[in-house]
Amino acid sequence: MPSKKVLIIGAGIAGIASAIRLAAKGYQVEIFEANNYPGGKLSQFEQEGFRFDAGPSLFTMPQYVDELFTMAGKNPIDFFRYQKLDVVCKYFYADGTHLTAYADTDKFAAEVHKQTGEPTDFVEKYLNNSSNIYSITNHVFLERSLHRLKTYLNWDAVKSIFLFPQIDAFRSMHKANRGFFKDTRMVQFYDRYATYNGSNPYKAPATLNVIPHLEQHYGAYFPEGGMYSIINSLVTLAEELGVVFYYNSLVEEIILEGSLAKGIKVNNQIIQGDLIVSNMDVWFTYHKLLKQHPELFPKKILQQERSSSALIFYWGIKKQFHRLNLHNIFFSADYKAEFDHIWKQGNIYHDPTVYLNISSKYKPDDAPEDCENWFTMINVPANTGQNWDSLITEARQNILKKLNHLLGEDISQLIVCESILDPRSIESKTSSYQGSLYGTSSNSQFAAFLRQANKASQIKNLYFCGGSVHPGGGIPLCLLSAKIVSDWIG
Q1: Residue 130 confidence (pLDDT)
Q2: Dihedral, CA of residue 206, residue 207, residue 209 and residue 213, to nearest 10
Q3: pLDDT at 149 over 70
Q4: pLDDT value at residue 390
Q5: What is the pLDDT of residues 20-33, one digit of tens each?
């Protein structure tokens, strides 16, 4: 009896991971990707001798990547290698404070005490709380579907439900962080983690204070070959398992017979399949690929607030800055005002927090000799029709002004090449509605339960993976969405 055929829409990391898991189970898997390369948001490009990872730049929870190789009977290190960072990130505050976030918790707590005066046990208490939230939520809310009864019919779920008050779902992240720390710099430090899933710390539930645990306990890593080597290694594995990739293959429609998904239309041709997995943003999956069937839309889900987006300047810099590290943050002086501009006014604050990633610190051939490749990013609102050309011009000036002041050098004179990614181009290149990076926002205590399930409720044989559906955005959660889809399909 021939194996069932699975058609996957989109070769983002969740689509590739879904393909690997299903191929390892014996399914016949084909992936259709609109671009001429795999990876979705996790892409790369080169310009004038500089290589840039264009999308996600922080690598945590590498065990979820390794698991794909081991479950396929392969040795991960034969495909993919990475090193743990001793310094996770360097932080630069508007008042001149410099804080080094060491991977070692004791060393980090001592650094916090030295730079801010906060007692070391405050940091330890905070991280213990973060760990506790993770232990309660991980096996139920992250690794399983929230939309299947079987998820709740086990002892782990019963314990998690019993301990629900401890996940702090009814306070905002900011309010909880103010309860742990007296120094505003440390409150701002931990408020920043809301941006890891495109949310607002002044509205998002304190449950998201689980995120520091993922970074501090499990560590941050640098993949040999840069972030895009994650995609290259997974594509190699998928192809060894028999997965077929079709590039330049824009899926135009999901074909239904009644409420049963039967195939897809690509380049005006119908391709039959037994199961469909969409790695495309769920909003576009419905509004583009199922537009003939509005009666099947999950309307409340599709009307939810979207996550924030990003504005990224990729700069080739003709100098090396030895005080900088792989990951660097230059904080805004008024964090509340910055988030109000993003979430209430829909524009960009004049003093944005700047994230600077320099992969050439760990991979020197990413830049010419004595140069650096700067991935310079700020958080911005999703695209709702703003005048982005004007916003980008003004933001560029403000970013340079900030970096010039904090680094003591005219950065504009060091830029030898530049590329820009904004919410409009994020949407056009990755089919992310409004250019939002993480699908819907997490600005309510019920956000986790309101994300699109990994299986369509009104369409049989249609599944979803990726950052716009449960359990959320970012590499680890996208990989977990693939695991959930694979478990659901069986």
Answers
A1: 96
A2: 170
A3: no
A4: 98
A5: 999 999 999 999 99
In whole angstroms, give the CA distance from residue 319 to residue 329.
Answer: 19
pLDDT, tens digit, 9 for 90 and up, residues 443-461: 887 766 678 899 999 999 9
Q: What is the mean pLDDT of residues 51-62?
A: 96
Q: Where in the chain is the domain with CATH 1.10.405?
A: 111-215
Confidence of residue 111 (pLDDT cuts 50, 70, 90): very high
CA distance 99 to 6: 49
3-state class percentages of the chain: helix first, strand second, coil last, to nearest 5: 40, 20, 35
Residue 282, amino acid = V
pLDDT higher than 90, residue 424? yes
Type of residue numbered 158: V
CATH 3.50.50.60 location in the chain:
5-42+63-82+226-304+441-489
pLDDT at 1 over 60: no
Burial of 293 (0-12, 13-18, 19+ CB in 10 A): middle
Amino acid symbol at 104: D
Distance between CA atoms of residues 203 and 192, nearest Å: 13
Residue 369: partners with Cβ closer than 8 Å, 6 or more residues away: none
> What is the domain class of 5-42+63-82+226-304+441-489 according to CATH?
alpha beta
Q: Which residues fall within 8 angstroms of residue 148, CB to CB, at 6 or more apart?
A: 488
Beta bridge partners of 328: 90, 356
State the pTM of this model.
0.95
Here the tokens at position 384 are: 């709702």
DSSP bridge partners of 278: 9, 464
Radius of gyration (C-alpha) of the chain in whole angstroms: 22
pLDDT at 167 over 90: no
H/E element, 60: strand 59-60
What is the CATH class of 111-215?
Answer: mainly alpha
Q: What does the block give as tokens for 224? A: 């040999």
The residue among 289, 277, 288, 284 whose CA lies nearest residue 9 is: 277
For the cut 80, the answer to whether the pLDDT of residue 184 exceeds it is: yes
What DSSP state is assigned to residue 205? B
Q: In which band, very low, low, confident or very high, does the pLDDT at 142 lie, cut at 50, 70 and 90? A: confident
Residue 76 half-sphere exposure, CB side, CA atoms within 13 Å? 16
CB 85 within 8 A of CB 326: yes
* The token pair that represents 117 in the structure block: 């005066």
Contact of 12 with 478, CB cutoff 8 Å:
yes
Beta bridge partners of 306: 440
CB of 54 within 8 A of CB of 31?
Answer: no
Calpha distance 119→113 (Å, rounded): 6
